[in-house]
Amino acid sequence: MPVRLLAALVLGLEAIGVLALAGWQVVALIGGDTDSVVSSLALIVLTVIGAAAIGAFAVATARDVSTGRSGGIVTQLLILSVAIGALTGEWASPGVALLIAVPALIGLALLILAVRAAAPRRRDDA
Prior knowledge:
- By secondary structure, the protein is mainly alpha-helical.
- It contains 4 helices and no strands.
- Helix 1 packs antiparallel against helix 4.
């Protein structure tokens, strides 16, 4: 299986995970566990847009389109920044940070390998 398809699979699973996060936000909104309905709705919309973008990166990566790989790399770096944030602050949680960081590191490695695999061969590589 080409590495780009594995990278696309990881991105697709991350898109599903972000959609699950949006579902959790909807449950919190319905349950009255939010301070501002307007802010909660805006966050849900942005989360769904983010999931759609990650899904689009997955499809583009599977189709061997460069913008999908580059968007996927940026996504992995953003996910890693969230994992670092989970390590700090008043409610730091190393376990949560690890659960967030491991798939992002795997996705980042696969995307970098996919970029290398898609690179045109140079004459002196033969």
